[in-house]
Structure formats: C-alpha cells, structure tokens
Amino acid sequence: MMRNKFSSWFVAIVTLLLLVAPVYAGFAGEPFALTFVSRILIFALAAISLNLILGYGGMVSFGHALYMGLGAYVVGVLAQHDVTNGWVQLGVTLAACAVIGLITGAVSLRTSGIAFIMITLAFAQMFYYLFVSLKQYGGDDGLPISARSEFGLFSLGSPVVLYYVALALVLVALVGTKRLVDARFGMVLRGCRINERRMKAMGFPTLRYKLSAYVLSSMLCGLAGLLYANLTGFASPAYLAWTVSGELIIMVVLGGMGTVFGPLVGAITLLVSEEILKAMTDHWPMILGPLIVLVVLTARRGLYGYLLDWDAWRERRGLAAAELLSTKERS
C-alpha cells in the first residue's frame, strides 16, 4: 500500500536528492550550492524542533530562535577560549539549552494563547540584548569563530562532513519525531493541543508532558545552532532575533504544521524561493509574502499536506470502488 502513496515517493526522492547533493556540487564546481543546501538542512532541523511543540502541542513559540543562537554562541565562546572539542561543545550546548528551556518553559507554559507567545518572545529578546552587551564576545558586531568543532574522527571544518552530519541529524530527527508522536507521549501532547482540560480530567499531568516536549525541542534547536555556527564561522545576536523565530514558524506552517516531513519541505520551499526571487528583483518580499499567504489559505496542512490529502482521497476512492465491486459480486 505504501508503495503507491505519492507522499512516500516524494519523501524517498527528496532524501535521495539530499544524499547526492555534495556529489553534484563537487562535479559542478559549485561550493555555494553545498553551503546553501547545508543551510537548508540546518534550518530544517530547527523547524523540526519547533514543529514538535507548535504542530503537535499547539504551543506557538515566537522566541524559538533563542536556542539556535544559544547553540551558536556556545561554539563561539568556547572556541574563543581554545576549547574546540566538539563533544564538549555538544554537551555544553545540550545542557545549556535544556536548563534554559526548563526555566523559560516552566514560566511560559503556565500561560496560553497570546500570553505564551509574548513571554517566549520576551525571553528571546532578553538573551538577544544580553549577547549584544557582551563586548568581550563581539557585542552587536558578533563573534568570529576561527576554529571549527573537532570530533576526533571528523571535523565540522570540512563542508562535506558538516553537510552529512546535518543531513544525518535531520533524518534522525524526522524518524524520532515519527516514533515520538505515535507513542503515548505524542498522543498526550496532541490531546493537550485539542482539549487540555479534558486531558487533565483524564488524569494526565499535562504540564509535565508539555514541558518535556518544550525542553526536548529546545535541545534539538540548540544542535541546529551549533551546526550553523560551524557553517558560517560566526555567532551573532541576529541569530536570536524575533525575525528568525518568525522564519521558523513560516517554515513549519508552509511545509505542513503537525506533519513529520512538513518542516523539511517548508525549509526547502522558503529558502529556495528566497534565492530565486532575490535573483529576479530587489523587491522579492512583496512577491514571496502573497505566495505564502496563498499556500496557507488553500492548504490546510501546508504543501506536504497536499500530498497527504491526495493520498487520503485516493485511498477513500479505492475503498469505495472495492466496496462497489463487492456489492456487485454479491448481487
């Protein structure tokens, strides 16, 4: 049955293209292409982390870029002090994002709706201005990173290695998201989005589930920040800006909020569209904006949702045809 689903074929084709992208970039002599697709994968990883709480938990975090910026600054600050061991940077990134995610989540999740949105935005802005004020680490100008993360057997200083590490993390995050949302944890999380009061009445500790998802999402986004710092060789307060959080939300909604593969589709669509439109006109936002609005208005579950809805329609049609045939045979 799965072999006939367009969504499954689409996932397989996109995955194959991503696997061979470095080969094409090498033969074509296009290093920018490899850097660009690496950027797509990194933002896709951040969008996947946001989709966990936004798409499945209904938590609209407008400050999710906080954790992406935090991961970047962990790499930059440690490299500034000659700590380039990637495992150390990874451990510090995960620990820092977990602690800050736990603290900010514990405060934010006691609210809902517009209050939750504004509190997450406020926390992100607090850290934004904190890094702006740290003049010893570049302040508003940002922090150049001279040495990339070293993991012993491999180094993120190699563009190809960085690309495949990012791709591996994206694939693991997609599989992990699928398994998580299909498990009891994911079902409770989705139940909280639909009717949290009913979930509480059934005896589920909803705050604990939502906070766990928020912390996990924060750590995953921190990994995206670590990779982004190695890609750009720079850590900047701009990584924590509310505009970056807005872009992540757009990626999730555009690709398919509450779908496993949607955030990757959204990241590819948004960033590729930006590059194409930038080459055409300096006023590209005036074209991209209405296109995004059009997709949001016409696609209930984003671009990837189109394929899922099409597969669902074909399945219903097939069942109806089988039932009709069975009725004719009985008559």
TrEMBL record:
Record-linked InterPro entries: ABC_transp_permease (IPR001851), LivM-like (IPR043428)
Top-level lineage group: Bacteria
Keywords associated with the record: Cell membrane, Membrane, Transmembrane, Transmembrane helix
Segments passing through the bilayer: 35-54, 61-81, 87-107, 114-131, 151-175, 207-228, 248-272, 284-303
Topology versus the membrane: Multi-pass membrane protein
Pfam family for this entry, one: BPD_transp_2
Compartments (UniProt record): Cell membrane
Name of the protein: Branched-chain amino acid ABC transporter permease
Organism whose genome encodes this protein: Polaromonas aquatica
